[in-house]
Automatic annotation (TrEMBL):
This is Class I SAM-dependent methyltransferase. It is an enzyme of class 2 (transferase). Transmembrane segments: none annotated. Pfam families: Methyltransf_25 (PF13649). InterPro entries: Methyltransf_25, SAM-dependent_MTases_sf. It comes from the Archaea.
Length: 234
């Protein structure tokens, strides 16, 4: 994985949410959470695994909604932030955080109803192996997002500390087929890339977000920087 040492640093974990989801980044947080809820619903009682759960944004959110959820991440520092979040929201007894490697998931086959990963595949050096593991431990659903190779994200990708792996739709479809997954649904968003939103105040960002959504419904939507992929185990 790209940037493993950077990602596991205490200072990075402590500032991760603040740097990415303050200012206009709040809109990104809202959209990503809605994407996960829409994909996994109905949530209550469902056994769910989050890959690369980080600070527990989604793990805690789904626990609050009644999911039987486990979050796995390679970073002890990130997991500590997640545990603190779970305690603050009163769901620490309703979820599990595990330190582990997404390439070798410590679960039996077909153990979860749904397995998902957000903000993960752009760092994956061997995406096929990760996706195969996600498929192995899921009996039904695999959900994840990617950053797109034909998008405005390419303009600033080289400025990022670790860069990002960018995917075409055809590559994602090949990966799904190779993992034994069938694409059930897809959606594409954020013609204006994440970095733009994080650079401006939230009230200004909301006006641009309205424009962004409109662009998504036009031919310019083909330049969306983010895609959400909802697949089923074949």
């Amino acid at each position: 994985m790209k940037g493993q040492e950077w990602y596991q640093a205490d200072a990075v974990a402590e500032e991760y949410d603040t740097k990415r989801f303050s200012r206009g980044g709040r809109l990104i947080d809202e959209r990503e959470k809605q994407a996960v809820i829409d994909a996994v619903a109905p949530v209550e009682g469902k056994r769910v695994l989050e890959i690369a759960c980080g600070t527990g944004r989604f793990t805690v959110m789904l626990a609050e909604r009644g999911a039987d959820i486990t979050g796995i991440d390679i970073s002890a520092a990130m997991l500590q932030q997640g545990r603190e979040r779970a305690h603050r929201t009163g769901v620490a007894d309703h979820l599990q955080f595990i330190r582990g490697d997404a390439a070798r998931l410590p679960f039996p086959d077909d153990h979860f109803d749904s397995v998902f990963a957000m903000r993960f595949f752009h760092l994956a050096d061997t995406p096929a192996s990760f996706l195969s593991e996600m498929c192995r431990v899921s009996r039904d659903q695999v959900f994840f997002d990617t950053f797109n190779s034909v998008s405005l994200r390419t303009v600033y990708n080289w400025l990022l500390p670790m860069g990002s792996r960018l995917y075409s739709e055809s590559e994602v479809l090949r990966l799904l087929h190779g993992a034994g997954l069938r694409l059930d649904d897809e959606s594409h968003d954020f013609v204006l890339p994440y970095g733009f939103y994080r650079a401006i105040p939230n009230d200004v960002a909301r006006r641009f977000r309205d424009l962004d959504v409109s662009l998504g419904d036009s031919p310019a939507g083909a330049l969306a920087s983010v895609s959400y992929w909802d697949a089923r185990v074949e």
